[in-house]
Amino acid sequence: MASGDDSPIFEDDESPLCSLEKMTDLVAVWDVALSDGVHKIEFEHGTTSGKRVVYVDGKEEIRREWMFKLVGKETFFVGAAKTKATINIDAISGFAYEYTLEIDGKSLKKYMENRSKTTNTWVLHLDGEELRVVLEKDTMDVWCNGQRMETAGEFVDDGTETHFSVGNHDCYIKAVSSGKRREGIIHTLIVDNREIPELTQ
Fold first, then answer.
1. Would you place residue 179 in the very low, low, confident or very high pLDDT band (cuts 50, 70, 90)?
2. Residue 1 has pLDDT above 50, yes or no
3. Which family is it part of?
4. Is 17-104 assigned to CATH 3.40.50.300?
5. Sheet with 129-136, side-by-side order of all strands
């Protein structure tokens, strides 16, 4: 079983039963939030067969059979930006194993902490659809449900506005100074002249 800060989230009742039947050696599941969406990473480790299988969003990325060395690592890529991910397999005692996930060379926990400083995320419902809007603060790229949006920047009296459209809805992210050095710039999503609360991660 997995342990540590980067331990997986185990299968819940919402997952289809057929995927559990198919994945008989499923040992770890992680949900990873990237700019283009939340990706589910599943790992099968057959400690008697030597099998290792990595699935990203239900699609098989890596399959290795008859691996005689049961510890090691598997490296693959996740999401539209091809973010590097590595699953580390370590023996902790006897036939017990620990599975940890690294994203861009950092533990999942450290990566998510860093990401919360470099991105803002909003979730809202528009026209009966759930939308996930992500602002990458370092590049000012805006993503909506996995698509990088066409944007137009505009300077205004109290800061900047980054405009984009979702369907027939006018949206913009307003950036204003907090006036406090430690807080920095405050980003606010406005959709149809309505402020959307930020998702806290």
1. confident
2. no
3. Belongs to the FAIM1 family.
4. no
5. 119-126, 129-136, 141-144, 147-148
